[in-house]
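[recover] target loaded
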């Protein structure tokens, strides 16, 4: 199930509201474990959470839910085993791990501070609920006149008071173009200040001047329709709107008090150096930048190129001047690698302003996260339970990456393979696929919902995708490549749609267009074939070694699977994306993605049998 989130009107430019999709207290030592791997166990609650918040590829329409559950459990066991081995090998001390872990932990720390200071203090006053129930019965048709000039709007208001026609004045103004018809509004569809003014009027009456953050308004009521009774949906909406408004009020008060007197600056000289490097990069790469709904986003690949444009001494210098643990320019670029940098336009003046805003938000988020850390929120179960899941996932992925790099293939091995096959080289299986890519998880959600309804994938791609390569679907790609994309494609059937996948350029939903067996190619020269041969053998060795390593770890850690507990778990089989939005802003997948890796279990059973265990 996907929770739909609507942020408060006057917070939309600052932070999204806190939404916790599911609340679990994962205390495995007190609850039945579905599996154990050494000192680590997988509780029923953790399994359910990971399963229901993750997408699961299905072989066909008549899928076996029991088998999918078993394979997913084996995948989680492998993740735990490999994570323990990664710690043993010191991977938890590497920069790659600590950067990723700290980046994700800050989301949960900020979220917990928001819960303590804002969310936990929300109440629904009876008086506000009564007003809401009365207002939601009414639907009002209205139009507005808007200005960013207070003197102008006051002059218009005086003219209307003296008998001038609201409609005649509106007809001369640019905002008339977006109001060909009067807007229908009801409780909760506008800023409370404007709502209070409009709902106090009868038809043909005009509000006084209403000041909001963006400027000044005058509204006219044209008609009012009234419902005779309220249904459950209306009651739920009233409660939600009242709570959101209370949340906004509490948040604004907290924000004002919390940040009062706090000053943290960025070094101006380094700011200019970073801005100039970004500006140079963008000017030289305009043709390669592809907007998504008018927004550009750059990630690690581009940030790495920008980093190379900066002097080493600047990279090592303090950029964000926190009193304790200041952040170097290098450290800030590490953050940009993970968070990405988004912008609407590429002209120099705009980029400078956008970078300034981006840094201000970073500083605010860091202040909040550091406060939560100072309060010890990193030790609360609500934070540690989730972060342990992310930690194991990060570490297991590092083990897999290390395993691949470690698979050296000698010239002798490659030549032996070449000779054995008489110079006929089996190429890897190939796939033809298409994908919809977006930085916005709301867009990915719409795509997956559309796919569930049977909407045409190509049409959705034209509407939603930030990249649209017309030749993409015509090309076959070999399946011997690394990464979640290729793992997913290898397990899919033709016509199947799957997602989400986190790719370098955003989140993706993929559709397998075709799959064919790899061709056999006659190669005359060994030297010509050597790089290709080594790639084939390295991939084979990697998968074999990974399965063997996991199987051995399973024996060493004496893994145990509680079939009874597994069978008792009732899970939602919806194959859709679920994500979480955090207090003080930001959104991430609700749980880390774990592609199916259950093939090791067969090796484990063989090894266990050979050892008579």
């Amino acid at each position: 199930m996907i929770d739909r989130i609507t942020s408060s009107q006057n917070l939309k430019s600052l932070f999204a509201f806190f939404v916790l999709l599911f609340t679990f207290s994962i205390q495995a030592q007190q609850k039945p474990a579905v599996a154990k791997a050494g000192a680590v166990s997988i509780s029923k609650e953790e399994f359910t959470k990971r399963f229901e918040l993750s997408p699961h590829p299905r072989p066909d329409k008549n899928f076996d839910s029991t088998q999918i559950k078993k394979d997913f459990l084996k995948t989680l066991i492998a993740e735990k085993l490999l994570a323990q081995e990664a710690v043993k090998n010191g991977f938890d001390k590497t920069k790659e791990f600590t950067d990723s872990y700290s980046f994700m932990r800050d989301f949960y720390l900020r979220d917990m501070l928001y819960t303590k200071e804002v969310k936990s203090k929300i109440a629904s006053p009876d008086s506000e609920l009564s007003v809401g129930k009365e207002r939601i019965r009414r639907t009002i048709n209205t139009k507005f006149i808007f200005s960013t000039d207070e003197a102008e709007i006051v002059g218009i208001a005086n003219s209307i008071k003296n008998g001038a026609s609201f409609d005649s004045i509106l007809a001369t103004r640019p905002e008339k173009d977006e109001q060909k018809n009067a807007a229908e509004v009801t409780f909760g569809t506008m800023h409370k200040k404007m709502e209070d003014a409009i709902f106090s009027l009868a038809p043909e009456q005009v509000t006084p001047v209403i000041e909001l953050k963006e400027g000044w308004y005058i509204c006219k009521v044209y008609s009012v329709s009234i419902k005779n009774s309220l249904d459950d949906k209306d009651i739920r909406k009233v409660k939600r709107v009242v709570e959101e408004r209370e949340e906004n009020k509490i948040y604004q008060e907290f924000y004002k008090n919390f940040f009062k007197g706090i000053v943290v600056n960025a070094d101006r000289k380094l700011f200019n150096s970073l801005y100039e490097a970004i500006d140079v990069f963008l000017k030289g790469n305009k043709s390669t930048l592809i907007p998504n709904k008018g927004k550009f986003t750059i990630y690690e690949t581009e940030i790495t190129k920008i980093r190379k444009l900066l002097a080493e001494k600047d990279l090592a210098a303090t950029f964000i001047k926190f009193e304790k643990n200041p952040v170097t320019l290098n450290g800030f670029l590490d953050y940009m690698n993970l968070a990405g940098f988004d912008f609407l336009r590429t002209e120099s003046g705009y980029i400078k302003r956008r970078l300034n805003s981006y840094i201000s938000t970073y500083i605010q988020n860091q202040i909040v996260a550091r406060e939560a850390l100072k309060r010890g929120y990193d030790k609360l179960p609500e934070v540690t339970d989730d972060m342990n899941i992310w930690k194991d996932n990060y570490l297991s992925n590092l083990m897999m990456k290390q395993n691949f790099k470690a698979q050296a293939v000698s010239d002798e091995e490659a030549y032996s393979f070449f000779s054995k096959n008489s110079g006929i080289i089996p190429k890897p299986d190939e796939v033809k696929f298409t994908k919809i890519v977006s930085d916005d998880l709301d867009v990915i959600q719409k795509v997956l919902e559309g796919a569930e309804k049977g909407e045409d994938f190509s049409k959705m791609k034209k509407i939603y995708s930030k990249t649209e390569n017309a030749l993409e679907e015509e090309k076959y790609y070999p399946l011997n490549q690394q990464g979640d994309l290729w793992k997913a494609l290898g397990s899919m059937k033709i016509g199947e749609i799957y997602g989400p996948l986190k790719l370098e350029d955003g989140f993706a939903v993929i559709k397998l267009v075709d799959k064919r067996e790899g061709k056999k190619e006659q190669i005359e020269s060994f030297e010509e074939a050597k790089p290709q041969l080594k790639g084939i053998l390295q991939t084979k060795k990697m998968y074999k070694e990974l399965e063997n390593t996991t199987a051995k770890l399973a024996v060493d850690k004496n893994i145990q699977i509680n079939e009874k507990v597994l069978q008792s778990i009732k899970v939602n089989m919806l194959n859709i994306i679920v994500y979480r939005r955090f207090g003080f802003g930001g959104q991430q997948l609700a749980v880390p993605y774990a592609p199916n890796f259950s093939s090791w279990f067969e090796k484990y059973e063989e090894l266990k049998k050979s050892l008579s265990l």
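[recover] notes: Residues 1-29 have pLDDT under 50 and may be disordered.
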